[in-house]
Input
Amino acid sequence: MKIISALKLSAKIYNSQSHHLRIQLMKNQLMEKYSDWAGKRNLFKYGANHLAKGESLMTIYDIGNLINNINDSEYKKSLNIMILGSSGTQASPFEGYPEEKIDENSNILNTLKPITSAVIGDQWHCFDMLPLRKAMNEDKIVIKDIRLLRIVKGYDIIIIIPKVTASKIAVDSPLSH
Output
């Protein structure tokens, strides 16, 4: 019965293209395993669109916000990191589909221009968002771009990798089955 319910929910999500329902399912699945990760140090890997501490780039309170709230309720902090390749190629999320060239004019990269413009050369760069948040809170800077504001408020660290290469799934890898 549980499998049939899950299949019906999946069909509803993809037929209606409901991002909110998809996020609800992701949160539900994470909370089903809560007893496995409660009270431990954890690393959650989701796409950057899902991990902001507050409202995500998808304009919903997402996985990162849930984890941040759980940690806050336990008098702990979360460390939310965005890792972003600014050029090169990225893998498709589906096996068998070709890699894609990163669009250097994408919304996210355009939004981050004030930060990425400081990246020179091929070395990785790590940006601490705390000084920006502090300057905002002290009214020393004003960020009018809502997406940039969500990023500055939602992530503690942004790591920019100037050139990335799409990952490959090995034929004999367990991930390829």
Observations:
- The radius of gyration is 18 Å.
- Helices lie at 2-16, 19-32, 34-37, 63-73, 107-111, 113-116, 130-137, 146-154.
- The chain has two domains: 1-77, 80-167.
